[in-house]
Amino acid sequence: MRAVELHTPGDPPAVVDRAEPVPSADQVLVRVAAAPIVPLDLLCASGTSYFGTPRTPYVPGVQGVGTVDGRVVWFPTTAGMAPGDGSMAELVAVAEHDLVTLPDGAAPAEVAALGLSAIAAHMALTWRGELARGETVIVLGAGGVVGQAAIQLARLYGAGRVVGAARSHAGQQRALAAGADAVVALDTDSPGDVTELADRIGGAADGPADLVLDPLFGVPAAAAAKCLRPGGRMVNLGSSADEHCPLDSSTIRSRSLRVLGYTNNELTRDQKAEAMRAVAQHAADGDLTVAHELVPLEDAPAAWQRQAEGRTTGRLVLSLG
Ligand SMILES: NC(=O)c1ccc[n+]([C@@H]2O[C@H](COP(=O)([O-])OP(=O)(O)OC[C@H]3O[C@@H](n4cnc5c(N)ncnc54)[C@H](OP(=O)(O)O)[C@@H]3O)[C@@H](O)[C@H]2O)c1
C-alpha cells in the first residue's frame, strides 16, 4: 500500500510503498478516505514534544476518516505519541472500540478537517469552559480550525456576543465567515502591546466578557484576560503564539479569574466519541464547517512543509478516496 512515512524526527516525511498492516485480535482494518495534517502531527514528529522522540520509521497521522465494511468512521490514533502507525496510509489497523460511526450526510473530508481541533473547541467551550446561554465569548486564533469551530459552536450553544481575534487578514476573514460578531487584529510582535491589545479586544466585546477560548497563549492571552468580568474563565488549549504569557497576577487576582488548561488527551474514550458524534452531526446538519484544502497522498511531503511554515489557507487534508 502507499503510505506517508517519517524517517527522521524534524524532517518532512516521504511517500513510500509499505506492507499492509496486520490487525491484532481487537483491531479492524480501516480503508482511509481522508487524513488531516494538524499541528499535533508536526509536534509529535519533531521529536521535541513532551511525548518524547518517536520510534521511527512510522506512519504519522493522529486521526482520520475511512470505511470498514461499508461503515464510514472517524478514528483517533496515538501515532508519534506511542509506538505504532497513524492515519496517513491507504490502510490502518485501529482498535474496534476507537471507531466512531459518522451520521448520514457527514462528508469524510469535512469531518477530517474538523477532527480533534473541533472536539477540543466543543469540550473547551462546554465541559471545561461551562458556556452559558447569552454569555460573551472571545475566541483567540479565530482563523485556525479550533477558532473557526469555536465561533460556530459558541453560536450553536447559545452564546450572546462572539468576538474573534486573529493575526492575519485571511484569518480575520475566516473568523467573520464563521459567524463572529466582531473581529480584531492581533499584533504580537511587541511584548509591550498587552494594554493596547486589551483595549482593542475589550472594545469589540462591548462589555466585560465571560469566557476566553485560547489556543495561542502569549500576549493575546494576557490581553484577553484583561477583558474578562470578575469570575470570568479563560481556557488555554494551545501555544501557537508563545509557550509563555505575560499574564499578571493583579489581573487574575483582582477579578478572581479562573484560568483553566485543556487537552483532548484527558478525555475518556466515551467522551471523545460523544464529542465527535456531536461535531459530525453539526457538520451533517450544515451548521459547522472549517476552511480546508484537499491534497493527494503523493503530495503529502510538500503539504507537510506548508503546514510547518504556516503557508496554508485552511486545514490540509490528504485525500485517499
Ligand atoms: N488542547 C488540545 O486538545 C488541542 C486540540 C487541537 C489543537 N490544539 C492546539 O491549538 C492550537 C491551534 O490549533 P488549530 O488546529 O486551530 O491550528 P491551525 O488551524 O493550524 O491554526 C493555528 C492558528 O494559530 C495562529 N497563529 C500561529 N502563530 C501565531 C502567532 N504568533 N500569533 C497569533 N496567531 C498565531 C494562526 O493564525 P493565522 O491564521 O493568522 O496565521 C492560525 O490561525 C495549536 O497549538 C494546537 O496544537 C490543542
Plain-language structure description:
- The protein is of the alpha/beta class and 321 residues long.
- Helices cover 32% and strands 25% of the residues.
- The chain contains 9 helices and 15 strands.
- The strands form 3 sheets. Strands 3, 4, 5, 6, 7, 14 and 15 form a 7-stranded mixed β-sheet that branches.
- Strand 12 (228-236), helix 7 (249-254) and strand 13 (258-261) form a beta-alpha-beta unit.
- Helix 2 packs across helix 8 and helix 5 crosses helix 6.
- The radius of gyration is 19 Å and the shape is globular.
- It binds NADP nicotinamide-adenine-dinucleotide phosphate (NAP).
List descriptors.
321 residues; alpha/beta; six-stranded parallel sheet; 9 helices; 15 strands; binds NADP nicotinamide-adenine-dinucleotide phosphate
From the helix content, strand content and strand pairing, which structural class follows?
Answer: alpha/beta
Q: Based on DSSP secondary structure assignment, what is the total number of beta strands?
A: 15
Bound molecules: NADP nicotinamide-adenine-dinucleotide phosphate
Number of helices in the DSSP assignment: 9
Order of helices and strands: EEEHEEEEHEHEHEHEHEHEHEHE
Helix content: 25-40%
Main pleated-sheet profile: 7 strands, mixed
Catalogue the unreliable spans.
Answer: none
Oligomerization status of the protein chains: single chain
Task: Give the overall pLDDT as a whole number.
Answer: 96
Radius of gyration: 19 Å
Strand content: 15-25%
Query: CA-to-CA gap between the ends?
Result: 14 Å
Shape: globular
